[in-house]
């Protein structure tokens, strides 16, 4: 099971989850028409006029297809760079008060979509490992809405 330190090593859930592959200044995006929004086949990128784009995992997660970065490069915006790592700033967090597996109900739904970064102790008590890329694939799959992506503190 996770230590107390694990549970408290997060900042408050941010309202904005940034796109992967950011290399340049995302402030440039405020003037952009948001080419990445249509490029994303998973439809997880949203952008309001005059604001920066953000990810929303309520329906799907990021499959790191790089299409957002490719179109950003093509349009000469230089905010996203397809050579950057497949990672999103943040980390998944399980609300243990909602998670079925912390209440003696067998549920392995999150592990079904993530074999690498969610570790169960036997059939129960899932924990998020440091290998989490914050892809968000586990968020919509959880029947309890127990998983969110939060900003991890520096060095965590
Ligand atoms: S990498 Fe692909 S799935 Fe992920 S946000 Fe970009 S376009 Fe969408
Ligand atoms: S899918 Fe949700 S309820 Fe099921 S084990 Fe994972 S976090 Fe818990
Ligand atoms: S726990 Fe797995 S599925 Fe969930 S955000 Fe992290 S890497 Fe993605």
UniProtKB/TrEMBL annotation:
Keywords: Iron, Iron-sulfur, Metal-binding
Recorded GO MF terms: iron-sulfur cluster binding; metal ion binding
Domain 4Fe-4S ferredoxin-type per the UniProt entry, residue ranges: 18-50, 51-82, 124-152
InterPro entries in the record: 4Fe4S_Fe-S-bd, 4Fe4S_Fe_S_CS
Alphabetical list of SUPFAM superfamilies matching this protein: alpha-helical ferredoxin (SSF46548)
Protein name: 4Fe-4S binding protein
